[in-house]
Specification:
The complex is a heterodimer of chains A (about 230) and B (about 180). Chain A is α+β, with helices and mostly antiparallel strands and about 230 residues long. Chain A is built from 4 helices and 13 strands. Chain A has a domain at about 100-225: MucB/RseB, C-terminal domain (Phosphorylase Kinase, domain 1). With about 180 residues, chain B is mostly helical. The chains are: A alpha+beta (about 230), B mainly alpha (about 180).
Chain lengths: ~230, ~180
């Protein structure tokens, strides 16, 4: 039998489904907990490639208005104004999205000072840019214990979203100094999320006391510059 | 701990990419891990796959569909096999990467697809199957396949021709055995 392009166009989708059923189905059973290193690289990838997408072929965009969220998706949502940033929060069963927007034309982070870090933790990874700072500390006696700190700045040019794993987590409102934030506890993993003027700060740690995490958070000093 | 922390300026792009990432990252990881047998390498392969996919993001019209799922698995499999080839001299028990994710003839016959051409495509070595899926199922041009698979364009064309030849041979053999 002569294999032509037409034959392949006609039959290859059946082959694809057959191949997936026979060789790949088992791989659907598992969930992998990706490393911080991987997540950071993905985040960087999204940022670097934001201009390479052809929007013309997109399906109609997900409607993010609160009405749509409430009536179409069946999830809960609310919006509030927190400092300078506008925050739209969308709670789903498995995760929570925090969508940030700012009315400032441009904003940069000049510096981030971590005034306090728990004893026994060493800085193992970090990156600093005018729009984002990242630090990861690991306990020198137990590598499974780490502290990750991310500071992102938002402006009219850089609206964005954070997505946190809140499935089966306990989420409570909390004060970090005089700023309102959220404390998320899921088993051994604890997180803090709050905003300070045009910056959003996220801290996560494993096997750490809540008060210790708050102490780290309260000692972060961000020097940011906004341009109107 | 953290599901994903992302920042994108365009909300459409962000939503779609996150949906894609959330939907397929673990499937891609385990596809890669079965080839590389190393957590860090498998994560690197998944990252590299997203890096290539995002460059052709406009081709993905629907996130949750068998075609997109197979596309992502195909890309990460292709990358993982290449990584394995680079590493294999260091491995104590190498395997034949040509036959990665290729079902046995018994499995194929038990599947009862009723489609001899589809059965033949499924039994092809991984690299042949990958290129055929990208070209004839997902509609990529040879130049795009070259970018996605880190091959040269002429190599892509040669692979397509060899795959067709191999398919003809498989079909002749199966006819002869009937």
């Amino acid at each position: 039998m002569k294999i032509t392009d037409e034959l392949l166009y006609l039959n290859v989708s059946s082959a694809r489904d057959e191949w997936f059923s026979l060789s790949m189905k088992d791989n659907l059973k598992y969930e992998h907990d990706f490393s911080h290193r991987f997540k950071r690289k993905i985040r960087k990838l999204i940022r670097q490639n934001k201009d390479k997408v052809n929007y013309k072929s997109f399906r109609p965009a997900i409607v993010w208005s609160l009405v749509a969220v409430i009536f179409l998706s069946g999830t809960t949502a609310y919006a509030y104004r927190d400092n300078i940033l506008n925050v739209a929060k969308k709670v789903k069963s498995e995760l929570t999205e925090y969508r940030y927007s700012s009315e400032v034309d441009m904003c940069t982070i000049d510096s981030v000072t971590l005034g306090y870090i728990t004893d026994g933790f060493d800085l193992v990874d970090s990156s600093e840019s005018p729009s984002s700072y990242y630090y990861r500390y690991v306990n020198r006696e137990d590598e499974t214990k780490d502290i990750v700190i991310i500071v992102d700045v938002y402006s009219k040019q850089t609206n964005g979203t954070m997505i946190l794993d809140t499935e089966d987590a306990i989420v409570t409102e909390i004060m970090i100094g005089n700023l309102q934030g959220e404390y998320i506890e899921k088993g051994e993993n604890i997180q803090l999320l709050w905003s300070d003027e045009n910056c959003v700060i996220w801290i996560a740690a494993r096997a750490m006391e809540k008060d210790e995490l708050i102490r780290i958070a309260e000692n972060i000093i961000i020097n940011q510059k906004a341009y109107q | 701990m953290l599901l994903l922390l992302s920042l994108l300026e365009n909300e459409d792009e962000k939503s779609r990419f996150i949906e894609l990432y959330e939907e397929y990252r673990s499937l891609m990881y385990f596809t890669s891990f079965k080839i590389l047998n190393n957590e860090k390498d498998a994560e690197d392969a998944v990252h590299e796959a997203f890096l290539r996919v995002i460059k052709h993001f406009e081709k993905i019209s629907e996130i949750k569909c068998p075609k997109t799922r197979a596309y992502l698995v195909t890309i990460v499999e292709n990358i993982s096999i290449d990584m394995y080839r680079v590493k294999k001299n260091k491995e104590s028990v190498p395997f034949d990467e040509e036959w990665v994710n290729v079902p046995s003839t018994d499995m194929i016959s038990e599947y009862h697809s009723g489609n001899v051409i589809a059965d033949a495509i499924v039994s092809l070595p991984a690299k042949y199957r990958e290129v055929l899926l990208l070209k004839y199922d997902m509609g990529y041009k040879d130049e795009e396949i070259a970018e996605l698979t880190a091959m040269t364009v002429s190599n892509v064309r040669k692979t397509v021709q060899r795959a067709k030849g191999k398919l003809e041979m498989i079909l002749e053999e199966s006819e002869a055995s009937i």
